[in-house]
Amino acid sequence: MVDCEDMGNSFDISLEKLTGLGVPRETGSAGGGASSGRLALGLAGLKPGIYRGETLEGGLRPGAAEDPKSTDLSQFRVNRSVCATQGTFFLETFGCQMNEHDSEKVAGVLLARGYRQVESPDTAAVILYNTCSIREKAAQKIFSRLGEYRFTKKEGQVIGVLGCLAQQEGEEIFERAPWVSLVCGSASYRKLPELIAQLEAGNSRITGLDTDTDETFETEMTRRNNPWRAYVTIIEGCDKACSYCVVPFTRGPERSRASASVLEEVRQLVDLGYTEVLLLGQTVNSYADPSARRMRFSELLAAVAEVPGMRRVRFMTSHPRDFGKDIVEAIEAVSAICDHVHLPVQSGSTAVLRAMARTYTREEYLERIAMLRGAKRRISITTDLIVGFPGETERDFEETLSLMEVAQYDGAFSFKYSPRPNTPSLKMEDAIPEEEKSRRLGILQAGQRDIQVERNARLVGEVFEVLVEGKSRREYQWMGHTSCNRVLNFTSPAKELLGHYVQVRVTGAGPHSLVGEAIHGGGGQ
Length: 525
Ligand code: 5AD
Ligand code: SF4
Hints:
By secondary structure, this protein is α/β, with parallel strands linked by helices. It contains 14 helices and 20 strands. The longest helix is centred in the last third of the chain and has 24 residues, at 434-457. The radius of gyration is 23 Å and the shape is globular. It starts with 35 loop residues before the first strand and ends in a 7-residue tail after the last strand.
């Protein structure tokens, strides 16, 4: 879960040079990375064979019309003004991968109801923003986006705010932006169809803001944006209550999905042609199977990896407290479980960790790192760090720097502490001045960059399997991720490699990515 302008990240790649093929969004980093991505429409962004053109145009999944359980679309067509934008929606997503995936489901819900997705808000009857409020900047950005409609909102147009900012600000959003008509937090997404139907019926203001749900947001249809990596939510919400974080408030309490339902979705994804899944949760490893099977998280990882046809299983984000040896053993035993763990530490000082209510000490965290570094299979480790938490002394900050040296992260997302509404740390004293936060962030990012330069340089000469996700405009240039989640840009004379697994020898390295050449030209598998 990441979104910030002032972050330093690890495996980011500029997609400018890549064609739209296979890289449908302006995202692409280890922990989430991008702060906003307008949905790219058109067949370029879709996995061949999964969606037919009519899915994009008409909104119906092939076969849905024949399905007796499918929704009667006629009820959603009443009361709609006859205009060019009729039945169209525009959806823009801010924030983390959980948000991106929620948007995929929201789009699925709307498409299944006969809506058509459009690329520009100008041509949409319904404009939706799926928002992030993790840091102040993210929230500001959304309010400025909403501000664009103050004078330009068209008659009959619906503007909706979904996600974390919606949950956090609630009806206040109507005060600040009276042209908004829908405010719905992620814990209420199950009610979305109902809420949209009410808007369709002429209601001018609707909210969905309950968080007291024990349900997860499962939909019959998900409109997937990433053609190579499918997101699968296994746990929603968060019970951890870190003192700086809005998530427990905006996403509600932890709710895990039954293991059978997760496995069923993964089987369907394989049928659709996916070979890589990313299991998602704010604290993914706190997964607690609510069904009688009572699968542990590590067992679920292995079970997903064993679904015939599945080649790569990723998971994000892990909380150090619940990170046990069994997860490392699963990675050691099952090669399809990717050798990458994102394990946010936030601070290297036990005093700051205590103030953050992270529930572990520096030493306990470093024990997890030692366990990962001692694994039989090399595992890449990435993290999240916050500088300038209230009361963080120079000494505390130096402890963070020294922890980074010991942990030797393969990548890190780092942020300046941002005070957030409803969080306990908001009332804490000894705020760190902005300039000092910036100074610390600069030092930390420079140190981490050096670590990455050195670690990546050591990989030169090694061979990695790459899932090819992008093609450069320059001939013979391709891009993909390794199992350890590094971006590898490589050359191959092959004509078509998108979606293939290719063996690539690393010939060069930078702080954020590797370069290489396909062995025997690639050929693909
Ligand atoms: N200020 C700065 N960073 C934050 N994060 C979460 N809340 C805040 C905040 N109030 C960071 C944490 C988390 C990541 C997703 O965002 O590092 O792991
Ligand atoms: Fe926020 Fe902490 Fe939960 Fe992560 S574990 S979502 S940082 S409260």
